[in-house]
Amino acid sequence: MTIPHRLYVGTIGEGLWRSTDGGTKFVRACDGMFVECHVRALAVHPHDPRILYLGSESGLYRSDDGAGNWRRVESPVNGLQVWSILLLPHDPDTVLAGTCPSRVFRSGDSGRTWAEARAEIVQDCPRIMHTRLTVLAADPTDPDTVWAGVEIDGLRRSRDRGRTWQRVGRGLSSQDIHGLALVPGNGRPARLLASTNNDLNASSDGGETWQPLGIGGILPWPYCRGLAQMCGRPEVIFLGNGDGPPGTVGAVARSTDGGVTWREERMPARANSTVWTFAVHPADPTLVYAASVSGGVYRSTDGGAEWEKLPREFGEIRALAWTPEFATA
After folding, report:
1. Cα(82)–Cα(87) distance, rounded to whole angstroms?
2. What is the number of structural domains in the chain?
């Protein structure tokens, strides 16, 4: 039995959808923004499930009532494609937004004022026109350290909560970064994982050097996308796998030892495309959602060992989130 919760699905061209019954029924939740917007990023406030941030092709939006209403956060991000959002876990008033072309913007006061971070990132990429800041991740071992992954320009690290950024990442199998996971070492060096278009990579020296893991010899395909971790048990990691972007088949893989070993988990059938993203929340660490980029939504209630497919399918999914239900006025 899952706890009462809200599931949010961010789509391309269909806006944001919300379910309050575990995914049986969905309603569009776009009041205050373009109803057919491209939702590429969702972030939930760590202490208040009513507060959500959303990234679209026209900027950054915020809801204070669980996606009942949205308002654009007026900032230098206005008119830019927002691909990633991070609220620092130790200081959620600090909000970071990553865009396409790749730039990083920072607010230290919940979005009232903003500044562009100092980061040298290539913005043009012939293959995809412009690079994209696909992932922002907080370091669980150091509240001042933040990580950013760029498609296609590698890895950046900040030691000052996102104000300035430096390039790291010697030895990565590819500069096409899709996802990041950070596993505390508990007395040993922390382990970092980076998913790319051709492998999963690991680092044990703070991201300076990396080793490809040869994931294509373990999982069905070498193409790796979303990474997520079980809340409270960061050694349990979920990985989205597939045969390309968007691909025609996909799978969920799971590691229970910090990314040392992996196995493909049980799904009702192959996903219809690469598994792109996940949603987790500390209110119930065993409840995990996953989505394929071509519209399938999956749920696990046992921490990712077994999955069921929700009946509703969407056109294209790029973002997922879930929160515990809350009392409404």
Report:
1. 14
2. 1
Could you tell me which residues come within 8 angstroms of residue 294 by beta carbon, excluding any fewer than 6 positions away?
Answer: 246, 247, 272, 273, 315, 316, 317
Q: What amino acid is encoded at 33 in this protein?
A: M
Q: Is residue 51 part of a domain?
A: no
89 preceded by a cis bond (ω within 30 of 0): no
39: in domain? no
> 177: domain range?
73-208
**Cβ-based neighbour number of residue 28 at 10 Å:** 14
Q: What does the pLDDT look like over 131-185, one tens digit per residue?
A: 999 999 999 989 999 999 999 999 999 999 999 999 999 999 999 999 999 999 8
**Strand 297-300 vs strand 308-309: parallel, antiparallel, or unpaired?**
antiparallel
Do β-strands 191-196 and 200-203 pair in parallel, antiparallel, or remain unpaired? antiparallel
- The closest alpha carbon to 37, from 76, 67, 7, belongs to 67
Whether the CB-CB separation of 32 and 69 falls below 8 Å is answered with yes
pLDDT in tens, 185-217: 887 889 999 999 999 999 999 999 999 999 999
Asked whether residue 174 is assigned to any structural domain, the reply reads: yes
Two tokens, residue 131: 């690079």
In contact, 303 and 310? CB cutoff 8 Å? no
12 preceded by a cis bond (ω within 30 of 0): no
- Report the distance separating Cα 304 and Cα 284, nearest Å: 12
Query: What gap in Å lies between CA 118 and CA 129, rounded to an integer?
Result: 22
Burial (Cβ within 10 Å: 0-12, 13-18, ≥19) of residue 323: buried
End-to-end CA distance of the chain: 26
